[in-house]
Amino acid sequence: MELSYVAESWPIRGKFAISRGEKTEAQVIVATVRDGAHQGRGECVPYSRYGESLESVQDQIASVKSEVENGFGQEKLQKLLPAGAARNALDCALWDLEAKRSGKTIWELVGIQTPQLKPTAYTISLDTPEKMAESAAEAAKAFSLLKIKIGTDDGGRLAAVRNAAPQARLIVDANEGWNESNLEANVRLCESIGVELIEQPVPAEHSNILKNVRTSILLCADESAHTSDDIQKVAETYGAVNVKLDKAGGLTEALKMIEKATEARLAIMVGCHVATSLSMAPATVLAQFADHVDLDGPLLLERDRDPSITYHEGAILPTTSALWG
């Protein structure tokens, strides 16, 4: 067995902005595990919100290099590394390698006989009301579900998006940007324009204030839920959970999250960071179990890797073995 890893930078089309900042490139790390005849790959996105950087994630991968090369599998990996980007890259690489070695597809390995294409949200980055409206009008030509990134003072932005895309279904993502003083007003604003889901409205450590909110809109935990151990607590304040490979630390734990979320009767959203198709490919497995899918990361890039994931009429198609799995 041989493990290698490399950091890559992929330019974003324009810029990508959320309530806590903006960026112009997607920085990813690709881990590759080879056994001579076969190789498996996994991509991750270090996320500063969780104290990660390109350097720290590469250091984590390096710390288990000898164990990986001695030939252990996904279950041991869960014990050697914490949930996060580094474990995600390695876990997905091991799944890919297992598929290549066995001659089976990922769908056969996880027991999904006929994977389906899934409608995905398209993200409208935080900007001026005018620019967000322009982006929404264009995106709504192909995507029936739009995800709107917002901050704290967003009445004008949301109204502009709704006017520009009157038929679109809307998700709002505050990225922890609201607080106790503006929470109620922002929720009512979302109700007035027909938003169906609000993602992580308040900081994770302040989620308890959501217990006082009465709304028909589905509230979805993102930063509040990383692994299956968080599901029970999340179910006390949220009606849905966003499962992301980089948070969970790979496909192995993400599947456990979905199992526990289903038991807790939480709706399931599957999300991503801005990244290439290699990040989206294993997430299409999770998408098979999701009520809401947000896997548009490669569409926000200037270019994608080849082969890439396929999108068709606002939907993401299941991965094929040429890309991953």
How are the SSEs ordered, and which strands pair?
Layout: E1 2-18, E2 21-34, E3 39-44, H1 54-63, H2 65-69, H3 74-80, H4 85-102, H5 106-110, E4 118-119, E5 122-124, H6 129-139, E6 145-149, H7 155-164, E7 169-173, H8 183-192, E8 195-199, E9 218-221, H9 231-234, E10 240-243, H10 245-248, H11 251-263, E11 267-270, H12 277-287, E12 292-293, E13 311-312, E14 315-316
Parallel strand pairs: 5-6, 6-7, 7-8, 8-9, 9-10, 10-11, 11-12
Antiparallel strand pairs: 1-2, 2-3, 4-14, 13-14
Structure report:
Residues 129-216 form the Mandelate racemase/muconate lactonizing enzyme C-terminal domain. Its cofactor is Mg(2+). The active site is at 149 (proton acceptor), 244 (proton acceptor). It comes from Candidatus Kaiserbacteria bacterium RIFCSPLOWO2_01_FULL_54_20. Mg(2+) binds at residues 173, 199, 222. This protein is an alpha/beta fold and 325 residues long. It folds into 2 domains: 2-103, Enolase-like, N-terminal domain (Enolase-like, domain 1), CATH 3.30.390.10; 118-316, Enolase-like C-terminal domain (TIM Barrel), CATH 3.20.20.120. Helix content is 33%, strand content 23%. The chain is built from 12 helices and 14 strands. It has an 8-stranded parallel beta sheet with strand order 5-6-7-8-9-10-11-12. Strands 1-2-3 form a 3-stranded antiparallel beta sheet. Helix 7 links the parallel strand 6 (145-149) and strand 7. The longest helix has 18 residues, at 85-102. The radius of gyration is 19 Å and the shape is globular. The two termini are 18 Å apart. The mean pLDDT is 95.
